[in-house]
Amino acid sequence: MSVPSPSSAPSRRSLSVLLWLVATGFFMQTLDSTIVNTALPAMAKSLGERPLSMQSVVVAYALTMAVMIPVSGWLADRLGTRRVFLGAILVFTIGSVLCASAPTLDRLVLSRIVQGVGGAMLLPVGRLAVLRTFPAERYLPALSFVAIPGLIGPLIGPTLGGWLVQIASWHWIFLINVPVGIVGCIATFIFMPDSRNPNTAPFDMRGYLMLVTSMVTITFALDGRTELGIQHATVLVLLILSLAAFVAYGLHAARTPRPIFSLELFKIDTFSVGLLGNLFARIGSGAMPYLIPLLLQVALGYTPFQAGLMMLPTAAAGMFSKRLITRLIMRYGYRRVLVTNTVLVGLAMASFALSTPNEPLWLRIVQLALFGAVNSMQFTAMNTLTLKDLGTGGASSGNSLFSLVQMLSMSLGVTVAGALLTTFTGLIGHHTGSSVIPAFHATFICVGIITAGTSWIFGQLSPDLRHTAKKTDPSERT
């Protein structure tokens, strides 16, 4: 691996610019994961689509990021951090322009895929550049600085998206990335160190294709019936193909010296339980940022900006509740906390089935804040459980797999929510104010049941497991 020589060590100014550069890339990535949600009804109206059939705009971005995560680290090792990070910003910016100029839903989805390719590489490659540039004693403070924008992005994303839609148009939620992207490209070319690893192992293309096939086919199976009109037989074939590809990867990884993700990781009990728990619990958590703005605008008559403001109590309560979870884990243990809190998150999701146009504003704010608090505690507890016992040897591969699962479950969450909402809307009635609200109510109940059922996975943990997480990458704690 190439590193800067003492005579060419980066200056303090260069190190500071590098941190801001990586932090800005992380902010752009996390912002675009949430800013779109409040703009979906406005997009639907502009493109001549139904608001309840716009989930593919969110799914395309999240699924593309999940697909690209295993490739990003290998590309940076082979081609160099500067070249790959510059390419990531450039592709992300071009994708943003294409999104803003898309005349149809299909073009918008394709443009979101382009945007997701760039977004998937911003954080992993930027984090790798920080790791290779900063000395060990400054690594954790540097990553903590980089992680802050990742918390701010989801906090302001829904409100900013609603505000831009209301004062201008939905196109500006993508166009705001363009000036930032141009400055980022220039700064990357000047300040980003171009470290690479000349001893990079060959990429496990066979294993990668198996994983991609499994992720893409299960998404099409869940979403294709409602949005693409795929027949039941085809859905069944896609589900079987997804399962077959997943099993094939397991057999492949057991026989390959250097698979993308080693099966040895699953011998770590906390990692395997935490990863599976994350996968299923985050389906519900990924559905809620999509469902709540739609409920507020389509069913309850909120403006985009008002819907965005209503997401602030959720984000604010989530940030304040993070400090509480460590004390609870140390006192009661991971199993009791996660089993109880997972059920509470499910109940909080299902409670939105009680939402009506006549619900007092203060009660709705309290409901959103309570959901944000228990949901944030769930993320923190699941993440620390998953990463706590990886150790140095499995940290890189385990973190990459964990990031993939996070993005995949977000994609599946929106896919499941969209499919349920479309199904219940068709069963209960079509597009009238009186029938949309019951469809939302039924969807929230189903999402809550899915989430609460995940508590069975966390029930497999040892009851005396109380140790807190080791020092890991702060950017993985969202």
Q: What is the third-level CATH name, the topology of the largest domain? A: Growth Hormone, Chain: A
- What oligomeric state best describes the polypeptide chains here? single chain
Shape: globular
For this structure, what is the CATH homologous superfamily of the largest domain? Answer: MFS general substrate transporter like domains
Number of strands: 0
Helix content: over 70%
Text of the CATH class of the largest domain: Mainly Alpha
CATH architecture of the largest domain: Up-down Bundle
Biggest β-sheet strands, sense, barrel? none
In round numbers, the mean pLDDT is 84
Number of domains: 3
Radius of gyration: 22 Å
Secondary-structure element pattern, one letter each = HHHHHHHHHHHHHHHHHH
Q: Give start-end ranges of low-pLDDT stretches.
A: 1-8, 468-477
Beta percentage is under 5%
Number of helices: 18
Distance between the termini: 30 Å
Structural class: mainly alpha
Please characterize this protein's 3D structure.
The protein has helices at about 10-35, 40-45, 55-80, 80-100, 105-135, 140-165, 170-175, 175-190, 205-230, 230-255, 270-300, 305-310, 310-330, 335-350, 360-385, 390-430, 435-455, 455-460. By secondary structure, it is mainly α. Mean pLDDT is about 85; it is low at about 1-10 and about 470-475. Helix 6 (about 140-165) runs antiparallel to helix 12, helix 9 runs parallel beside helix 16 (about 390-430) and helix 11 runs antiparallel to helix 12 (about 305-310). The two termini are about 30 Å apart. The protein contains 18 helices and no strands. The chain folds into three domains: about 10-195, Growth Hormone, Chain: A; about 205-260, no CATH class; about 260-478, Growth Hormone, Chain: A (Up-down Bundle), CATH 1.20.1250.
